[in-house]
Design a protein that fits this description.
single chain, GH13_cat_dom, alpha/beta, Immunoglobulin-like, 25% helix, alpha-amylase activity, GH, Oligo-1,6-glucosidase, domain 2, 18 strands
Length: 532
């Protein structure tokens, strides 16, 4: 144990690869990624150098929200495979030294979950309805929602049922929110944890980890205020109970939270020694490409995590946000916000790729763990020209096309060949792939020494080999305006040039890695690893 009481587990400096199952690899030729496809690509992942895979939901689902509308938390959706296949995949990954983290979705379920079907078939006030947030409406005839909460997918967060009551859904109307005041909900999810731990999973990524507990008074809120349904004190009791379950299993089982909180110190409270092990650093993800914001967010992250003895978890992209190659190449604002995805903004893809390469070396050099979203190791960009009739994200439909949604970062991966589906499978792909990806396939990049894939492979290998990288601390170097630089012991220096002109390299013994060509000086938007 460390002085802070946290165990020095594998997860503190792990490189974890996010697999969005539908879009990773198709093993049965139906156009949708599956467990067989992942198993066939385990050698690719092992060669990439990752320590663990995080799987997005593989549970039975009507796929209204890409699997995050779960109908059964103890089974595998037939479109992905079988429970036996999942168990075999876990064992096969373990045999290659790769751990397995799976999604758990405790805030809500599908409207096809048996409990919600029971609730709809039962009377107001019944035990079946108390598992969810059913309430009478406002107004003389109850025709107005119980409060003014908005769905994060657009529109009201309430839907009325035929008997006049309304139920709460912070996301799609097909994703009713569980009522975590109900002890039956708490007990059932603890059983779900044990079910999957018993089958060998090494941890859980907790979807909407900040949102399970609601203010029972369900008060109206001002625009932008999420306090009554986010970061409620009752969450800590839940995660302390989950941590006890995780700690009761051998092998450092982990809990990772998805929490979009505006206050980093509030988020760090969930990482105390008896709660979650880690949480995604979304402040880093949304950061615009500039020296001051990046240095500030790194400094604040390390300070907040140090207070609770937890590691940071660095992430550049995921299945919900615009890919960072596109973000970093945009005119104007290069950050990210759900309120405005800046769809259609002009993009300099070459610039975005150059910056993405530098950002990759930055995340690999920082203390803590990192997450790689599938395809970022190939330098894939956001696909923004998907025809409306082919889009499947409910965000697109619920906003009448005002928000393009998340399909653009979920397009199936290009593995090989010169035309779609680029080796994804034999039966096409569930979202259209651009022909331009012919030079971005894993096969093409494996043969190209200067490719993004080769950069990731080399960086992750060195990260694993160098004693200075992974867990630990850093010391800032002051190398001039716009130059982000730090040292890590023993003998490692990182430099990233955000300024508008080349800068000299600090004294060093050897150049270990560079994100782009270097000729004596470090060009703009370029990063370097130095042995000192």
């Amino acid at each position: 144990m460390t002085a802070s009481g946290q165990s020095a587990g594998w997860w503190r400096s792990a490189a974890i690869y996010q697999v969005y199952l539908r879009s990773f690899a198709d093993g049965n030729g139906d156009g949708v990624g599956d467990l067989a496809g992942v198993r066939a690509r385990l050698d690719y992942l092992a060669e990439l150098g990752i320590d663990a895979i995080w799987f997005t939901p593989w549970y039975p689902s009507p796929m209204d929200d890409g699997g995050y509308d779960v109908a059964d938390f103890r089974e595998i959706d037939p479109i992905f495979g079988t429970l036996a296949e999942a168990e075999d995949l876990i064992a096969a990954a373990h045999a290659k030294g790769i751990r397995v983290i799976i999604d758990i979705v405790p805030n809500h379920c599908s409207d096809e979950h048996r409990w919600f079907k029971d609730a709809l078939a039962s009377e107001p006030g019944s035990p079946e309805r108390q598992r969810f947030w059913f309430r009478p409406g406002r107004g003389p005839d109850g025709s107005e929602p119980p409060n003014n909460w908005k769905s994060r997918f657009g529109g009201s967060a309430w839907t009325r049922v035929p008997d006049g009551e309304w139920y709460l859904h912070l996301y799609s109307s097909r994703q009713p929110d569980f009522n975590w005041e109900n002890q039956e909900i708490r007990a059932d999810f603890e059983d779900v944890l044990r079910f999957w731990f018993d089958r060998g999973v090494d941890g859980f990524r907790i979807d909407v980890a900040d949102g399970l507990v609601k203010d029972p008074l369900l008060p109206d809120v001002d625009p932008g205020d999420e306090t009554p349904f986010s970061d409620q004190e009752g969450l800590h009791e839940i995660y302390r109970s989950w941590r006890k379950i995780a700690d009761s299993y051998p092998g450092d089982r982990v809990l990772v939270g998805e929490m979009w909180l505006p206050d980093m110190s509030r988020a760090a409270r969930y990482l105390r020694r008896d709660e979650l092990h880690a949480a995604f650093n979304f402040d880093f993800l949304v950061c615009p490409w500039d020296f001051a914001p990046f240095r500030d967010v790194i400094q604040r992250t390390l300070a907040a995590h140090e207070e609770v003895g937890a590691p940071a978890a660095w992430v550049l992209s995921n299945h919900d946000v615009t890919r960072h190659v596109t973000r970093y190449g945009r005119e104007g604002d290069t950050g990210f916000a759900f309120a405005d995805r800046r769809h259609g903004t002009p993009v300099d893809r070459g610039l975005g790729t150059r910056r993405a390469r530098a950002a990759a070396l930055l995340t690999m050099a920082l203390p803590g763990g990192l997450y790689v979203y599938q395809g970022e190791e190939l330098g894939l960009w956001e696909i923004e020209d998907i025809p409306g009739e082919l889009r499947q994200d409910p965000v697109w439909a619920r906003t009448n096309g005002a928000d393009p949604g998340r399909d653009g970062c979920r397009v199936p991966l290009p593995w090989s060949g010169d035309a779609p589906p680029f080796g994804f499978g034999t039966g096409g792909a569930w979202l259209p792939q651009p022909g331009e990806w012919r030079s971005s396939t894993a096969e093409a990049q494996a043969a190209e020494p200067a490719s993004m894939l080769r950069l990731y492979r080399s960086g992750l290998r060195l990260r694993d080999e160098l004693p200075a990288l992974g867990a630990g601390g850093l010391e800032w170097l002051e190398l001039g305006d716009g130059v982000l630089a730090f040292t890590r012991q023993p003998g490692f220096t990182f430099v990233l040039n955000f300024s508008d002109k080349p800068v000299p390299l600090p004294p060093h013994r050897e150049v270990l890695m560079v994100s782009g060509p270097v000729d004596g000086e470090l060009p703009t938007d370029t990063a370097v690893w130095l042995l000192t």
